[in-house]
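Let us begin with a simple case.
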Amino acid sequence: MKLSSRKLSGFTLIELMVALVLLALILSSAAPVMQITAKRAKEQELKRNLWQLRDAIDAYKKAVDDGLIKKSPGQTGYPPNLQILVQGVENPRDPKKRKIHFLRSIPRDPFVPDPELSNEASWGKRSYTSSFEEPAEGDDVYDVYSLSSDTGLNQQPYREW
């Protein structure tokens, strides 16, 4: 009787364990990089949204200063709320009484986790009469800021962007 000398092929248990440990090390080193990348993308969205809102507020003020929007004597010329930037304001100089629109929609603060809040409520609003250090809402919207208490990658709180 002849013994067959077949060579068995495959991985040993030790080889599999070493491969799994190496894979776990690679994945655990990639996770922080992915978290930073995701945070950086949200920060870029926050910058873009703040720029859009502030640009629309400034355009509204310029339209008031240019006489395209009626202003009462006691008003500052800034919009009373963010929704008016989307709804539009009637142009008294236009014979067809078309509205001037400043935004298509109000962007959302990407760092506000509560999905129940409306886009407008996701922003902090500062009136013309309030200070920068202690922003407060008032009769108009002079500036917007993030309500997030987090700090950015640049070590500056999002509220101060």
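The second case is a distinct protein. As before, the sequence precedes its structure tokens.
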Amino acid sequence: MAISKGYKALLEEAMQQIKTMPLEEARELYELSEACFIDIRDIRELERDGMIPEAVHAPRGMLEFWVDPDSPYYRDVFGQSGPFILYCQSAWRSALATLTLQQMGMENVCHLEGGFKNWMGAGLPIAEKRAVNH
């Protein structure tokens, strides 16, 4: 099956339209508790690697439903003003997710430069996956 647009083109388009939060700026917002970090990785990734402390786990497959107030799956955390910093492992899924949320009309949303891999590599705080995180 031939595809007309691959993931690289999708990522390139997303990156032109979204804000990428530099790691140092994200760290500062984290330390000041001035941002809501949203972990969109699969639960198995969280269990294996942990997550940013106090981050909200919103699986990529449910994100649009959790953000939309008209959805039966809506989560109150998304009613806050933000800023919201999305992250995944390598900043691919979070780039596409950030673009989707912007297209839904969500403001004050960006994604973390380099993803969780970058956060871990910088030796920043990591917590074990919590059973309930919102």
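The chain has one domain: 18-121. Residues 18-121 form a domain with the Oxidized Rhodanese; domain 1 fold (CATH 3.40.250.10).
Keep these points in mind for the review questions at the end of the chapter.
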